[in-house]
Amino acid sequence: MNIQSIPLRTLSGEATTLGELAAGNAVLVVNVASRCGLTPQYSGLVALNRRYPGLTVVGVPCNQFMGQEPGSAGEIQEFCSTTYGVDFPLLEKTDVNGDSRHPLYAELTRTPDADGEAGDVQWNFEKFLLDPEGNVVARFRPRTEPESPEVVAAVEKHLP
């Protein structure tokens, strides 16, 4: 199955796919949480999404890491828009690891990071970059800031 056609649900419950959300753009998929020490990375994600018209950031709320995303869909949406001005798409709360891992993350986690390691998502704010054709071209671990030189270079390289 093409990663762009994997069925997804938006935070508001609407059926969608990455292909529909990104329509020919590069995509940065990030598992997010509102009560994490890395939550301020939302600011960098918003900045990237606004800076590059050919990029679509997609946030995937996940509560698998110490329960750091416990809110309802409405609470998550309100927190993201009010606190960080998030204007990129958010998906429904999703498992990224384990037996109930979403099919999107079953595909994404096959991609190795810069050290050659694939497998489970380590923590909130792990980032996966897809080119406009839906190929996973880079993986950045949680502590890599969205506006770091390596993320920016990878994004710029894969813009349509």
Automatic annotation (TrEMBL):
GO terms for molecular function: peroxidase activity. It comes from the Bacteria. Keywords: Oxidoreductase, Peroxidase. GO terms for biological process: cellular response to oxidative stress. The active site is at C36. InterPro entries: Glutathione_peroxidase, GPX_AS, Thioredoxin-like_sf. Signal peptide: none annotated. The keyword S-adenosyl-L-methionine does not apply. The keyword Oxidoreductase applies. SUPFAM superfamilies: Thioredoxin-like. Belongs to the glutathione peroxidase family. This is Glutathione peroxidase.
